[in-house]
Every structure is written in C-alpha cells, then in structure tokens.
C-alpha cells in the first residue's frame, strides 16, 4: 500500500469516528431535549469538516557549498622615492704646472794626464857599505856590560845633497840606548846618491834598513 492510500484510510476512519460521535451526541441531545436548532448548527459545523489531502513534503535541495572567499591579491608597496637626491660631487681638476725644460748637465772635462816623465825617477841609494855605519866599536858601554842585544829597524830621509836629514825608528830592539846609537851613527856616517825626479834632477828621498847589535866574541 502506498503512503497516500494509508493516509486516506486514516482520514476516513477519523471521519467515521467523528460521524459516530455526532450521532451519539444527537441522540443524547434529543433525549435530553436540547434544541434542534442548536444540534443542527453543531451538526452543520461538524459535517462540514473539510478533510484536505496532505501533500507530500518536497525535499529541499541541499544548500550550495559555501564558496571560500578568494584571498586578496598581494600588492607590493610602491618603491620609496628618495626626494632629497644629493647633488653629484664636484670634481676639481688641478692643472699641473708646465714641465720645466730639461737642462743638460755638462760633465766636467776629464783631467789632463800629466806628460810621461822624460827620465825614470830613482830612489836614494847608499854610497859604500851600510855595514860600516854602525860597528862593534859603537856598541853602547852599558848595553855591552849588561850583555843586551837586539835589532833596530830605521828609516832615514835623504836630502838632494845625499846626506841624512832625519832618522826614525820603525822597529825597536828593546833597548833605548841601542836604538839611539843606531840613528846617531847612521846620520853621522851614511852617504847616499840622492833620489831624482822625472827630469833627472836630485830631490828628497828616503831609505830604510836595520842594524843588528851583537856582542863580539873574543
């Protein structure tokens, strides 16, 4: 049985029950002497009940899904504009002073070499035997008594005339009296051929030698 048939049967049963009740009420009203008009009005109201067929409820469509609001677009902030722009730096161009002209430096003239000597210069040379300048007879008495010996080195300056003008001890014998006797005897006895210059003229020269003082053996 369909849903509509079940609903109509239920309505009819209800109507039959109501009609039965009305008959009971009417019988009771007649018995009790109620006014017919009153019963008629009641019956009219009851019998004019309009039984409406209930329509099936329409299923409501499901609500549409909620649309998610789209996120707002990302808006980049506008770039900052630096209004106070610094002026470009001012470059000062320094003009270099003009280059001074190069003055050539003249080299000094080379020294003029002296002319070669006409004669080869010569050193002073002794005349005779230098061994005779100081002999055993010239041995200082005290040094002989104390038996002191030694060798004295000397250098003499010879003048243009060939004579000794000065004497210098360059190596001591260890005894002052032996050194003094050396210079004294050489200055007194030595004679030289004087030194000559490039022209062959006599000039001052020098001479070096030594005297060995040895005690004579008997």
TrEMBL record:
Organism: Novosphingobium arvoryzae
Similarity field: Belongs to the TonB family.
Ranges of residues in domain TonB C-terminal: 124-218
Protein name: TonB C-terminal domain-containing protein
Keyword annotations: Cell inner membrane, Cell membrane, Membrane, Protein transport, Transmembrane, Transmembrane helix, Transport
PROSITE patterns, per database record: TONB_CTD
Superkingdom assignment: Bacteria
Membrane topology type: Single-pass membrane protein
Ranges of Pro residues composition bias in the record: 62-81
Subcellular location field: Cell inner membrane
